[in-house]
Amino acid sequence: MTAPIHVAVTGAAGQIGYATLFRLASGEIFGSHRPVVLHLIEVPPVMSALDGIHMELDDCAFPTLAGVQKHDSDHLEDGFRDCNFVILVGSIPRKQGMERADLIRINGPIFTNTGKAIQAAAAKDVRVVVVGNPCNTNCLIAMSHAPDVPRNQWFAMTRLDQNRAAAQLAHKAGRPVAAVSNVAIWGNHSATQFPDFVNAKIDGKPVPEVITDHAWLKGDFISTVQQRGAAVIKARGASSAASAANAALDTVKSIVTPTPAGSCFSAAVWSDGSYGIEPGLVTGLPLTTDGHNWRVAAGFKIDEFSRTQIDKTVAELKQERDTVKDLLP
Ligand code: LMR
After folding, report:
1. Ligand 1, closest atom to CA 135?
2. Domains in the chain with CATH codes
3. Residue 229 C-alpha to ligand 1 middle, in angstroms?
4. pLDDT digits (tens, 9 = 90+) for 149-168
5. What's the pLDDT at 301?
6. Which of 71, 189, 214, 292 is catalytic?
7. What is d(CA 42, CA 46) in angstroms, rounded to the nearest whole number?
8. Phi/psi of residue 7, each to 5°?
9. Annotation says 189 is catalytic
């Protein structure tokens, strides 16, 4: 019998959490032979909602669901105990008219205790995916408070941007989204991010060869991806939930699944100086993995345009780091 994988989700009763749990339990993410124990974590006032979610999880009768634990966020160590994956959703979402960085002083402090509790209680192999915004800097705060958890086990979510970029490119080229690959998101999950069309491919060919409207690539394409979160908030009256949950799960799947040859997946990770990005930030990069160990994807072409875009978004990450200086040990 395969040992179960323990997965904690904070903000489990929120819209993103709710859209995440059932797919984690279903076997879709870790395979139909890997039992999953879910650790649902919420703030105390919302704990009763977890009882309802627990009932619904039972009512799905997923053969892969090997247990459900419910924990309040005042006891984070109990919640993260022995977890192999921790998905950090719990945070205040932005409202219309805000940038994600406007949340930094509201959400940042949550991630200090979160990091400490992960270090104290999670499994040695824990992988952490930060979804709550501003996710790059929240990840930086959490990992700084968990110095014994190796840096390569921390990720912040730029996958939603990767998926948005792939969808836009597919639409423009009149090709299915499955034809799009190698989409890197550089820098911050914010309005400065650089969705990299230079190295992206459609049907294995460089995007700029397939989409000859380069003004669109350098203009509307980038701004649409950069502003998509705000556009969803404006239209829906609430920030993205199902697509954010889907991206969090895609991130987990990409971390545990060998990356197809000639492609990459995007996540924000601790920068090691690759591609001239200052070390010590949590920045979006193109990654590949054999399903166990990831590395920064090699050989991405950085032309002058890309360099300017990357430098701009990295400058914003540095600014965010300065804003939370007091939260970094
Ligand atoms: C998104 O990109 O949709 C989420 O990060 C929510 C937001 O604030 O935009």
Report:
1. 5
2. 5-156 (3.40.50.720), 159-323 (3.90.110.10)
3. 4
4. 999 999 999 999 999 999 99
5. 98
6. 189
7. 6
8. -125, 120
9. yes
- Which ligand 1 atom is at minimum distance from the Cα of 243? 3
- For the stretch 33-52, pLDDT in tens is 999 999 999 999 999 999 99
Q: Say if pTM beats, i.e. exceeds, 0.85.
A: yes
Which residue lies with its CA nearest to atom 1 of ligand 1?
A: 229
Smallest CA separation from ligand 1 atom 9, residue: 229
Residue 1: pLDDT over 80: no
Kindly report, residue by residue over 79-90, the tens digit of the pLDDT.
999 999 999 999
Nearest C-alpha to atom 2 of ligand 1 is from which residue? 229
